[in-house]
């Protein structure tokens, strides 16, 4: 299920949060949405899930207009928020049963879906325990299980690994990959952990100061990391080093032989985090 956003605008008390934002997310993508604090990520996800209204612009979800087909869009989407979205005094099973009934699931359909969600998130041993007794990792897995109850075609995951141990984090990342690959679910993933996005996502967008400043396939971004730019007085030469530095050393030798002066050498980005900080600058965002 694709998402096409055009000229989306949103202001809060005169402060522009989304400024004519344009974005396209392809069907089946595991899409990483990055941005500093206050960049507009949460606002964008909230608008697409009818939690806050937009000011102007259009959004098509699987060719359905956000302004005209709210119920149909809601039926194919689900959001897993950063905050825990369950009742602490209910057991995991009671939470799944309750939220499944809100989606209109009944009897056998509800039973089968709960069984699936329990299996995917490996909650079998904890299903009859109250949610408030869970570790941080278990609470995150219950959050995800609830988000899967309506068999969403589009799943929004907002910081789903915050505050958990490395083992739980790795497990959740693998669960997300599995959902995307086996269910063909379109997933929009927001996180401040760059290594997660680099591991998971096939396409990445960076949102900053109310605009999309970069959107590319991950393989293209990683390719950029291997490009060394040699700046001369009147030109810039790009050398690809993904297969080693032989081409780079040969080019340097050639330029020296031709007595061409090298003004600067840019070794690209070490990783996605380095690129992110370079694009958004490194000043604090409170």
UniProtKB/TrEMBL annotation:
Keywords per UniProt: ATP-binding, Nucleotide-binding
Span of the signal peptide: none
Organism from which the protein derives: Halarcobacter mediterraneus
InterPro entries the record matches: AAA+_ATPase (IPR003593), ABC_transporter-like_ATP-bd (IPR003439), P-loop_NTPase (IPR027417)
Pfam families: ABC_tran
Domain ABC transporter: 3-234
Protein name: ABC transporter
PROSITE patterns in UniProt: ABC_TRANSPORTER_2
One GO MF term: ATP hydrolysis activity
Domain of life from the UniProt record: Bacteria
């Amino acid at each position: 299920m694709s998402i096409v956003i055009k000229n989306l605008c949103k202001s809060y008390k005169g402060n522009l949060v989304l400024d004519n934002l344009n974005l396209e997310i392809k069907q089946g993508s595991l899409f990483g949405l990055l941005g500093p604090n206050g960049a507009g990520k949460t606002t964008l996800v909230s608008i697409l899930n009818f939690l806050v209204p937009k000011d102007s612009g259009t959004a098509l979800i699987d060719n359905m207009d956000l302004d005209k087909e709210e119920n149909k869009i809601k039926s194919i989407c689900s959001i897993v928020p950063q905050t825990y979205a369950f009742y602490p005094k209910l057991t995991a099973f009671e939470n799944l049963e309750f939220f499944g009934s809100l989606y209109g699931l009944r009897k056998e359909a509800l039973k089968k879906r709960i069984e699936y969600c329990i299996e995917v998130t490996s909650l079998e041993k904890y299903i009859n325990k109250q949610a408030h007794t869970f570790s941080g990792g278990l609470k995150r897995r219950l959050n995800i299980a609830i988000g899967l109850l309506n068999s969403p075609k589009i799943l929004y995951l907002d910081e789903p690994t915050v505050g958990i141990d490395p083992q739980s984090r790795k497990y959740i990342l693998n669960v997300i990959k599995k959902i995307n690959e086996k269910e063909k679910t379109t997933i929009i993933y927001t996180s401040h952990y760059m290594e997660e996005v680099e591991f998971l996502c096939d396409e990445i967008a960076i949102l900053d100061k109310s605009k999309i400043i970069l959107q590319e396939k991950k393989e293209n971004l990683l390719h950029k990391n291997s490009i060394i730019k040699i700046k001369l007085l009147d030109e810039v030469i790009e050398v690809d080093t993904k297969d080693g530095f032989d081409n780079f050393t040969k080019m340097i030798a050639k330029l020296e032989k031709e007595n061409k002066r090298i003004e600067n050498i840019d070794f690209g980005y070490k990783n996605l985090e380095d690129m992110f900080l370079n694009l958004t600058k490194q000043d604090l965002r409170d």
